[in-house]
């Protein structure tokens, strides 16, 4: 991992914490996640993109926007998997319910999302995601972050630039 990537991702995680918190509010859980993430980055122990997605999920959970993926977020029927996420209710929708205000994702991405909501951040090094799944989760989580918090992380724009830059190189 290049120093620039490390720096950009670290800045992004800090910005995300800043964005999701109200002024003067303290949230120990968020702080703990941030320390864990920095530890993993420093030890070069994880795929940083996977860490960033897992971190976003933890942030959403810690601030009251947890995903509901085990049950349909509309009819509460048990779900083993789904290919549709409601952006309104931040959860999976079963095949019998109406699919509005949401987005289709692959079953692989849904299952990865479900797994990431449950695994502790310090165990994220065990997770391997395909490029396509990472891309899907990135899109979904950016929408939810933008929708739930008032500001959009600026470092996301730097990311897009970096990603294009990397893709040009290969
Ligand atoms: Zn349903």
UniProtKB/TrEMBL annotation:
GO BP annotations listed: DNA recombination; double-strand break repair
Assigned GO CC terms: bacterial nucleoid
Pfam families assigned to the protein according to its UniProt record, in alphabetical order: RecO_C (PF02565)
Entries under SUPFAM superfamilies matching the protein: ArfGap/RecO-like zinc finger (SSF57863)
The protein's name: DNA repair protein RecO
Species lineage: Bacteria, Bacillati, Bacillota, Clostridia, Eubacteriales
